[in-house]
TrEMBL record:
Domain of life: Eukaryota
Domain B3/B4 tRNA-binding: 317-493
Organism for this UniProt entry: Channa striata
GO biological process, one term: phenylalanyl-tRNA aminoacylation
Gene3D superfamilies: Phenylalanyl-trna Synthetase, Chain B, domain 3, Ribonuclease Inhibitor
Disordered, as annotated region: 253-284, 497-523
Keywords noted in UniProt: Leucine-rich repeat, Repeat
Gene Ontology molecular function terms on file: phenylalanine-tRNA ligase activity; RNA binding
Protein name, UniProt field: B3/B4 tRNA-binding domain-containing protein
Segments of skewed composition (Polar residues): 514-523
Keyword Repeat tagged: yes
Bias (Basic residues): 265-277
Amino acid sequence: MDDMEKWPEIEKAATEKRRELVLQGPGIDQRVSCLGGLTPSLYSLTLLNYLEVSQCPSLTEIHDDIRHLTNLQSLVLCRNRLASIPDVIGSLRSLKVLDLSVNNLRVLPEGIAQLRELNTLNVSCNSLEVLPEGLSQCTKLSTINLSKNRITGFPADLYSERLDLLSTLVAADNAIEELNGDIHKLAALKVLDLSNNKLSEIPSDLSDCAKLKEINFKGNKLSDKRLEKMVNGCQTKSILDYLRSKAKVRQAEDGGDVDSGRTTDKKKRQQQRKKKEKAADEQDEVEELNKMVVRILHVSDAPTAITVKVSAEVKDVRPYLVCCVVRGMNLKSGNALKRFLVAQTKLHDDLCGKRTTATIATHDVQLLKCPLVYDVKPPTQLKIVPLGRKEMTAVELIRHLQLEADELRKQKKRQNVTGLHKYLQLLQGKSFYPCLVDAEGHVISFPPITNSEKTKIKKTTKELFLEVTSGTSLQTCKDVMDALITKMAELNKFTAEHQEEAGSDEEGGENPQRPVTSSETSSELIIQQVRTVDQDGNLKVVYPSKTDLCKDVSNLTVIW
């Protein structure tokens, strides 16, 4: 218990059965230094699926007990001074993201090859000289970052057809001397960065990577000076075309009776390459048409990032909250805003169980007065300007809604009512109501009933603050937010493709001649992380984390 008291973050994670834990910064580093490592109690949090321990220069090793955290999907151990990682890391069979960047690692454990679910491996900024054998067994790998190490070459099994999902390979600033021609076996490769290495040749087989879109070989002293000039100009298409032409020249030189068998093999390979290219081009066209892109802006990269403080009193009322900021959502064109509001209502009715499991609220960021506090108030003290109404207390609002509901029943001669009236029973018996309060003390959200007219979104809204609250679980909030963002990406793509006439700039002022801007024809969304903290400033949750937005949506691309 004494150990827990020294690590309140771990005690809180244990008592609240949390699935995410972030330990970082000087305070954590001081405790690590005093203890000689991380507290053993950390390894008892077996429910964790996201663990981050970062910015702790005193952390030099991870205990073998890490093997107990078998539910981990993301393990982030960056910006420490780790000299080794235990081989038992291979026991974390659910791990999808492993970030060991900016440490003092000289070798990686062979156990990494046992991580069959791994899709992202970041070991950049270490002192690695070799990679472990067996990475081809991690068949779900899509991104590998090895930049800024001392690697001299890739293991043979990295050039494996089994890695058919590997799309990004970054190994800049190493000492790599040779790129094997078997690189063409990485059929999904789209990005290859081998800048600032010791390559003298680029194999012509690289041109057989049909999906390759971006290559970087700058800073290598190539023997072919013409190719080196192209490389320094980062002309991906020109480089690949040149490599193909070189392959054809070699093929012609190898022709004739002396080696006709070899020539025939090369012709077959060329035909196969052309077929692959054609199929890849067709597939890329389809992917490009259907692609929805969501780019995540890390909280540390946003100087004006919003933080929401959560009071202890919400625990017994409506304890769970996740938030984020969305940019790039085009609400101005045609019926874009209406489609978004309809989609939100549908999510409330379906995934949110008619607001019984969760509630969504949206706000115009430009109208927010930060910082924000998620709190509770007695019904008589909770004042809000509900959407489309004048300011009133929660008691008055509920009385109004009940009277409206009774009138509707009389008029329509039925028991069921629509609109906000159908959510009134969710507050029955509550002594306190949950609310989101701005820096001026105004209530801007009163879940699950309404949010405020003060922060209402309009066609002119450029940034949206999204909140999802629940009395069920944190994961429920995250699932709903994931679904909402995915739906927003779909709607934004639809709006960009159809390019309807823009509606009024303000409510009441038409501007039909206004030209459509490039931001309105782009469907990319930028999601800025928002942290929720307790009253002492300790992190409760950050959304999105790397375990969020991971649902199997084939045409949704999430860029971190």
